[in-house]
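User: I'm curious whether this sequence folds into something compact or stays loose and floppy. Could you predict its structure so I can see for myself?
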Amino acid sequence: MTRTDGRPRRPARVRAQLAFLHTGVLLHGAAFLLWLWFSVTVIYAPSGSVAALTFATVGVSAVTWLQRRRFAAYADTGIPRTPPVKGRNDLQRAWRRLCTGAYWRQLGYHQLAGPVLGLVEAALLALWLGSIASITLYAWYWMLPSEWPFSQWVDTDGWIPGVAGLAVLPFLLGATDAVIRLESVIALRLLGPSRAEELARRVEDLAERRAETLAAADAERRRIERDLHDGAQQRLVSLAVNLGLARATLTDLPPEARAVIDEAHREAKEALEELNHLVRGLHPHVLDDRGLDAALSGIAARAPLPVQVTVDVAERAAPAVEAVAYFVVSEALANVTKHAGATRAEVVAVRAGDALRVRVTDDGVGGADPSGGTGLTGLARRVASVDGTLALDSPPGGPTVITVELPCTLSSAL
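Assistant: Here's the prediction. I'll summarize afterward.
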């Protein structure tokens, strides 16, 4: 049972503390004996050192797991797990684990702090046993023969150990609380991850969540593009075709009615063109089907100035990375058209190792400023969303060069 403040009642708490002390003595003793066995095996039986190495690392991990369960069950202390060690086989994982700071901290806990804590716990258990025996002396001494000297002593002076046991009991309660708190602090420092390991794991978790968020956002853009392409876009095409047929076949209509049909046909075509631009802005369908080369060539073909495109990507990058590269080139060429006053532009996309480098160059007036409202700030944020970098070189008079470097895989980027 628990109190209103969430803490267990005193009897249940005392039982948990005594269980903590009992299991601590057993686990600390088992860990110490394991280390002795490992040392003797390695020194006197070198042929079995590989098995001893594997067993020792597994043994330390097992005892550490049991200690975590012990602290969680009896001390209300949650000890986080240390980062897992990866490897191709058990032997490689065992060796790599030996090279981690977490293993040596755990070994230090079991072999240095553990024996000392085990002795303290054993002493506390002995004091608890003596105190309880002293307090309950009159409850069980009747079982002894009356002619024994001990029974005669209890008859006359048996109250003395009972009073002593009651006097020691508050000290034992406080000492047990203090020992458990001290052990919890030591266990958190030695059995749990270090500050650096905790930060590294948090960074890894945040990176995985960001990768999942990027993948979900990319999937949602693909879904919207597919729905628009298969739904609204097809209906607008059908509407424009019907209006065109009506304008071609209904020649006997009044001029006012023909003017309305002509205007509706023009509006339908303009709406269809705007929707096409919107669909390409969400996610270009050609990027999935034919890759970055065809997608960038399509952007260059739609540009109002000559654009030379060079793509050397032997192996495709991650879909989200390719999408960022596509939007970088699209936005950069749009800025060239609107602000640069250029006569030509060049786009180069090259994969070098695990990096995708994209460079957009124009022969315009230069002087591009990210704070001037040209969309360069948003472009840099889009690049940074996959841990990429953007460099701008735009001196007055030109030329302007935008260089973007993107990791080819989100796993390595994040």
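Summary: The chain is about 70% helix and 10% strand. The beta strands are 307-312, 345-352, 355-362, 389-393, 400-407.
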